[in-house]
């Protein structure tokens, strides 16, 4: 997260621009990691502020606000959301706030020739068979890659929207996606791109 400046700014702005929501409140940061959110919140000169890392005991009964940067690759990969849900159910007051309070995952077919077409000619030598093996191995697991807008074969569509105030562990553990996308741009179909948009993916209370 430290190098994701737009995401850092979104959290910082949401926290610092909602001082009234944080005033005299007890705040819990789940999965504090580097502690950057733990720096943003104390700048407001608040009441007790607590960090919760995995396996670290937490004895406080209820908190007013939970903040967490839990989003992994394609939203759910790191499984941190489970910890947020458990903490929400155990520690958040009924009228408490979540930062963020919702999240969205987008899907779109894409063409990424830079990843595969390289093998067509390596310094004049065809390595198509090796390239085929690379593609087969790549298809067995997700790849984290930067994809330009020009590589998208149609407009992105929402495939998952989560209301973090209501979603349950059962909901998360039983998510299934069946999605049909129609390409309307020219290009070689080479995969499905799942992504989060920094400013759309998480709605922060205002």
UniProtKB/TrEMBL annotation:
GO terms for molecular function: histone methyltransferase activity; protein-arginine N-methyltransferase activity. It comes from the Eukaryota. Coiled coil: none annotated. The keyword S-adenosyl-L-methionine applies. InterPro entries: Arg_MeTrfase (IPR025799), PRMT_dom (IPR055135), SAM-dependent_MTases_sf (IPR029063). One of its GO terms (biological process) is methylation. It holds the Pfam family PRMT_C. Keywords: Methyltransferase, S-adenosyl-L-methionine, Transferase. Residues 102-197 form the Protein arginine N-methyltransferase domain. This is Protein arginine N-methyltransferase domain-containing protein. It comes from Rhamnusium bicolor. The lineage of its organism: Eukaryota, Metazoa, Ecdysozoa, Arthropoda, Hexapoda.
């Amino acid at each position: 997260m430290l190098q994701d400046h737009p995401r850092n700014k979104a959290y910082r702005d949401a926290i610092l621009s909602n001082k009234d929501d944080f005033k005299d409140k007890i705040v819990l940061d789940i999965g504090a990691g580097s502690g950057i959110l733990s720096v943003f919140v104390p700048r407001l000169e608040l009441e007790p502020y607590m960090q919760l890392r995995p396996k670290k005991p937490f004895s406080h009964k209820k908190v007013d606000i939970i903040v967490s940067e839990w989003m992994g690759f394609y939203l759910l990969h790191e499984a941190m959301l489970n910890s947020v849900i458990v903490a929400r159910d155990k520690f958040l007051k009924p009228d408490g706030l979540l930062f963020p309070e919702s999240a969205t995952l987008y899907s779109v077919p894409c063409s990424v020739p830079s990843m595969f077409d390289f093998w067509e000619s390596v310094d004049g030598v065809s390595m198509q068979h090796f390239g085929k093996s690379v593609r087969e191995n790549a298809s067995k697991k997700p790849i984290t890659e930067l994809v330009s807008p020009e590589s998208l074969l149609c407009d992105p569509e929402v495939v998952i929207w989560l209301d973090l105030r209501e979603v349950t562990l059962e909901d998360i553990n039983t998510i299934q996606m069946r999605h049909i996308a129609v390409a309307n741009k020219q290009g070689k179909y080479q995969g499905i791109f799942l992504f989060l948009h920094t400013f759309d993916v998480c709605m922060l209370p205002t």
